[in-house]
Amino acid sequence: MVAVAEPTAVNKLEVDRLTIRYGDHVALEDVSFEVRENEVFGIIGPANSGKTSFLKTINRMDMFDSNMSFEGAIRFNGVDVSRVRNVYGLRRRIGVVFPLPVGLPLSIYDNVALAPRLAGQKNRAELDIIVERCLRRAALWDEVKDRLHSLGSMLSGGQQQRLTIARALSQEPELLMLDEFSIAVDPVTTMRIEDVLRELKKEITIILVTNLVQQARRLADRTAFFLEGRCLDVAPTEELFTGTVSDPRTRDYVEGRFG
Amino acid sequence: MTKEKVPARQDFDQLNRDWFIDKAVQVLVFLGGISAIVFIIGIFVFISREGLGFIFEDFSFTEFFGSPNWRPTSESNPTYGILALVAGTASVTGLAMLVAIPFSLGAAIYIAEFASGKKREFLKVTVELLAAIPSVVWGFIGLAIMNPIIIQTFNVPVGLNVLNAGVILGLMAAPIMTSIAEDALKAVPDRYREAAEAMGATRWQVIYKVVLPAAKNGLLGAVLLGVGRGFGETMAVLMATGHSINIPTSVFDSVRALTATIAAELGETAVGSPHYEALFTIGIFLFVITFIINLSADLIVRGVRKG
Amino acid sequence: MFEASSLNRKNLRNERLVKASLGLMTGLLILPVVLILSTLLYKGGPVISFEFLFASPTNGMTAGGIFPALLGTILLVLVALIASVPLGVAAAIYLSEYAPDNWFTRAINLAIINLAGVPSIVHALFGVGAFVIFFKFGTSILAASLTLAIMTLPVVIVATRESLQAVPQAFREACWNMGATRWQTIRRVVLPNAITGILTGVILEVSRTSGETAPIMFTGAAFFLPLLPQGVLDQTMALSLHLFVVSTQVPDMPEELPYGVALVLISIVLIMNSLSIALRMYLRGRKKW
User: Fold this and answer.
1) Does the CB of B289 have a partner CB in chain C at under 8 Å?
2) Among C99, C115, C247, whose Cβ lies nearest the Cβ of B33?
3) Alpha carbons C289 and C115: distance in angstroms, whole number
């Protein structure tokens, strides 16, 4: 059922018998798979199947929810995240993009410069370079280059989403996690962001949680199917869509019969 | 995994400067957080420290609470009965509440349910400003303005009495009670009002039958806080009651309040003397009573939020 | 079509009656105070002059100005602010950003409510017992200001906590996800967006502190001093206590002089309060998100 890592591939993330709970409610149960270096790993599945809880556990955002607990292990670069002492260091290596973009009430420039500043970068010229590079990569530069010092929280929804991508990139993450990023974004912008992700994949690892089955098919190298807190399938994406799957419900879902 | 790559991949888990600063700040703000508890305990400890000597030596429970004779300066036979002082505080606070409760509840209902837009905003700001007038100014008003008015209107020899202090205290407490009561009314969800209005009830019927019962606890909390404020008020009652020890039989009697007694006498006592310690014992009594009032107001208002 | 029935008409009339009487009650609550303030202005206004504000009292306080009291109030407020603002802001940060929802946090909140509800004269007793006697500050500006600081601490805590909590949680989560520590998040995103709200609380505290009398009577404020204070361990005169003194303790006081003192005191308090309210309204009108 679980694809075994090929010996040549390096694993960015190893998920080992992970169970996530909110109080007594089980959000994700006994999930195991791995995410390889420089791949786009898709996670599909209907709402409430445990996808977002999974992402929150990877970068230890579960710490802010006293109700939330997990068992099993997630290893990032081989380090068990539950044993990490400096969770901030862990989070800096992982960029996150949410379904609803949150432009911080700072200028566009300061939004993107925030992560480098947190990491101690004070040199204005260096920051200028980082800000421009990240905004260009997030396909936002041309639209905002003349108003870098106006408020980031006043941009349109699609622009804010690209701003949050630029912000995530400014962390220079090794792993980028996107959670249904296209919900608040128009189709044209979605396509532009997808192009960006194809470029990024050359350098970093991407986990793409999406409610759009076709988006996973377009972008993901391998895809997992989550349903009601269980991981029913993990397979190379084309195989999941066309080949044999271990659970019939996977086929039903990718072909749009429910969800 | 190549050998050189390992440290680079895993060095995120170093405890760095930011991590230590964060921990330090967490400890600092926690100290700030517990400071309120430390101060409340500190208040109790320090006034007890000064007042306990009296409780252990000269204190007689029946005399303290049962005797109307507060004669701490008597050479031959000092007595420390606070009954008359309690009566003074109670009469003034009681009259103040008679004045303040109807007016502040009426004003709160008007502001919350009838006034709208600019008018509402204006009334709220005015009430807030009224609540800010310092108590020594109120005392001065009692002394300089109310006093002659009472003497003329009622043809009495002295205008510094229960009536004067009660009205002053009522005017003082009313704005605060109005604000809190208005908050309580506003906390009643609009769907209650809409449901009742849909059934054809008039505005007043909605308020009387739906809003007031729903806001009952919050309104009670407002009244309790008003009582607490009246009970603990010092300067205004010191200046407007006439400051004579009396169990009042009419509103034109001068009285003396617990708080005012401390304010008037503490400066004249020697540190550590029975009189000095007795004043601190009154302080303990005031602290305990207001603590109970505030605690019950809080519990009542919290109850409304849960429901 | 819908003819008003007699019942409906009766209801409408009752409704108007209720509204009118409640409006009247509101008016009656406000009117006496407006009359009183006008009287203060009418009788105290002519007293106020440059000399009144900037000269010392003379002739056993029956003439001259109020400068030492005015200066003393400013000093008392400043020292109280230095003590209470950092502490109050820290407490509010703890309560808004760190405190878990448990019995201990509820105890802190209860303590804050009580700190605000304890009678001012009890705070005075505490100030005497703790600062004047135990910590041996004597009757001094320091002892009086610390007493005031503890008494008005809840004002700063409540205003700061409210403005911190008005900053949407999503901003914090966005920062945490980027690897910002809690403190970095507070310093870079939460505090900058709450600072004006905190300022309204501080101004409100200035207003409260400058009017308090009982807490400073035995801890550091004096009826009359021939010299200005030279340091925080000296006693000082204060405007609020000065009003008490000139209106009750001094024989042969000219009638208008206390009105002048009352007018200056109430002006300070109301101006500070209005400033705080205006700032709050300005904030409400200018949203960044």
Assistant:
1) no
2) C99
3) 35
pLDDT band at residue B178 under the 50/70/90 scheme: very high
pLDDT above 70 for B4:
no
Give the CATH number, domain containing residue B259: 1.10.3720.10
Residue contact C121–B175, C-beta within 8 A: no
In this complex, is the C-beta atom of C242 within 8 Å of any C-beta atom belonging to chain B? no
Residues A84 and A184 in one domain: yes
**Mean pLDDT score, B291-306:** 80
A83 and A179, same domain (yes or no): yes
Task: Tell me the chain B residues in contact with residue A79 when contact means C-beta distances shorter than 8 Å.
Answer: 10, 12-13
**pLDDT at position A153:** 83
The per-residue pLDDT for C33 is 85
C41 touches chain B (CB under 8 A): no
Token pair for residue C169?
Answer: 């949680």
A156 in the same domain as A65:
no
Could you tell me the pLDDT band of residue B173, with boundaries at 50, 70 and 90? very high
Instruction: Kindly report the nearest CA distance between residue B125 and chain A, in angstroms.
Output: 29
Lowest mean pLDDT across A147-156, B54-63, B182-191 = B54-63
Handedness of CA C206, C207, C208, C213 (dihedral sign): positive
| Phi, psi dihedrals of residue A9, rounded to the nearest 5° | -75, 145
Query: Residue B7: which pLDDT band, with cuts at 50, 70 and 90?
Result: very low
Which residues in chain B have their CB less than 8 angstroms from residue C125's CB?
46-47, 50, 262, 266, 279-280, 283
**Which residue is listed with tokens 């006697």?**
C133
In the predicted structure, residue B58 carries a pLDDT above the cut 50: yes
- Quote the pLDDT of residue B54: 78
**Which chain C residues touch A167 with a CB distance below 8 Å?**
174, 178
Minimal C-alpha gap between C61 and chain B (Å) = 17
Counting as low any pLDDT under 70, the low residues of chain A are 1-9, 259
B178 domain-assigned: yes
- Is the domain of A3 the same as that of A89? yes
Asked if the Cβ–Cβ distance from C125 to B267 is below 8 Å, we say no
Of the partner residues B1, B6, B13, the one whose CB lies closest to the CB of residue A89: B13
Is B245 part of a structural domain of the chain?
yes
Closest-CA distance, C126 to chain B, in angstroms, reads: 5
Collect all residues of chain C within an 8 Å Cβ-Cβ radius of residue A164: 174
- Looking at the structure, tell me whether residues A8 and A88 fall in a common domain: yes
pLDDT band at B117 (very low <50, low <70, confident <90, very high): confident
Chain C residues in contact with A93 (beta carbon < 8 A): 179
Which residue has tokens 């401390």? Answer: B262
What span, in angstroms and rounded, lies between the C-alpha atoms of C108 and B196? Answer: 39
pLDDT of residue A167: 94
A89 and A41 in one domain?
yes
Q: Do C176 and A92 touch (CB under 8 A)?
A: no
The ipTM is: 0.90
C177 touches chain A (CB under 8 A): yes
Query: Could you tell me if A69 and A48 lie in one domain?
Result: yes
Query: Are both A42 and A132 inside the same structural domain?
Result: no
| Domain assignment present for B49 | no
Question: Residue B140 belongs to what domain range?
Answer: 79-306
* Domain count across chain B: 1
B89 assigned to some structural domain: yes
Instruction: Please report, for residues A20, A224, C223, the alpha-carbon distance to residue A43 in angstroms, rounded to integers and kept in the order given.
Output: 16, 5, 77
pLDDT for C237-277, tens place per residue? 999 999 999 999 888 888 889 999 999 999 999 999 999 99
pLDDT at A47: 86
Per-residue pLDDT at C29: 86
* CB distance B144 to C259 below 8 Å: yes
Residues of A in contact with B15 (CB under 8 A): 85-86
- CA B49, B55, B60 angle in degrees (round to 5)? 165
